[in-house]
Design a protein that fits this description.
This protein has seven helices and ten strands. The protein is α+β, with helices and mostly antiparallel strands and 290 residues long.
Length: 290
């Protein structure tokens, strides 16, 4: 597996000045006198040297900030230039520019089945950058397309591994554990992209919903679950309040109640506290035993 290494290069400004001076010197000191003297071999030699020096200008390359220049010589990897500026390398080399900037993309909405078999729609935003230019260029055919395809494959695999919503306490779900799911997604994408010299900075789910064909049914299910949970909380609070009321009445000796009267009082208090509508008071003019 190829690993990135630093390519050797000469300062571009120095080489530019050197080449210009060399061409001028050869032209003035050799080509012009040879042309005046009419010496064919000297004219050919000086002209060839001027062309060769001009060809050396092809070795000049500009490296921009956050950019890598991958250098190849006759099919072999020479190295990568990362330092910004004007540089001169062997003019016979082939050079490919690779952006080292942080990039991001949003996957399309994928329709998959979650761990419970329910069809859902899911999409993610992935933030990434190239950290090894040699792997990015030589290990995969097109590293940008590779990032997109593998990210969507990892997202699809993640969606099938977890349920959309947890139905058991402690169960990890796509909707209820967003931070953990994002970390798991980032880890899985990174494992797939490590061979392409890419670092995943962040990966998060940007869209999550039930598929349209079951969305209404799942909404009713969620509403029913919410109602049940709310009623359970109300009952729990009401029982605590009734218990506290009986303890305070007994502690302060406000009234002495037998078990039957306690049962009636508990029943009335629970009706008042647990009812989802306003209760109407009823005045009892008799006694509990009449």
């Amino acid at each position: 597996m190829l690993r990135e290494n630093r390519a050797s290069a000469a300062p571009g400004v120095l080489m530019l000045v050197t080449l210009i001076v060399a061409i001028v010197v050869v032209a003035v000191a050799w080509f012009v006198p040879a042309a005046r003297a009419g010496s064919g071999w000297e004219i050919f030699g000086s002209a060839f040297l001027i062309v060769a020096l001009a060809f050396c200008f092809a070795g000049l390359s500009v490296v921009n900030p956050n950019q890598g220049l991958v250098v190849q010589l006759f099919g072999g990897y020479v190295g990568t230039l990362r330092h910004p500026g004007l540089w001169w390398v062997n003019p016979f080399t082939a050079r490919k520019r690779v952006s080292l900037r942080v990039r991001n993309f949003e996957s399309g909405k994928l329709k998959v089945n979650d761990n419970d078999g329910n069809p859902i729609e899911i999409a993610a935003v992935v933030v990434w950058k190239v950290v090894d230019t040699a792997e990015a260029v030589f290990q995969v055919d097109n590293y940008e397309n590779f990032v997109h395809v593998q990210s969507e494959a990892a997202l699809r695999n993640l969606a099938t591994s977890y349920a959309y919503d947890a139905h058991v306490e402690g169960q990890m779900s796509l909707r209820g554990h967003t931070a953990d799911i994002a970390e798991q997604l980032k880890k899985e994408i990174q494992e797939r992209l490590s061979q392409a010299g890419v670092e995943v900075i962040e990966a998060r789910i940007s869209h999550l919903a039930y598929a349209p064909e079951i969305a209404s049914a799942m909404l009713r299910r969620q509403q029913a679950s919410a109602v049940v949970a709310a009623r359970a909380k109300i009952v729990e609070g009401a029982v605590s309040m009734v218990e506290m009321a009986l303890q305070e009445l007994s502690k302060r000796e406000v009234i002495s109640l037998d078990e039957e009267r306690k049962a009636a009082m508990v029943s009335n208090l629970l009706v008042v506290l647990c009812s989802d509508r306003d209760t109407q008071p009823v005045v009892n003019t008799g006694t509990l035993y009449q």
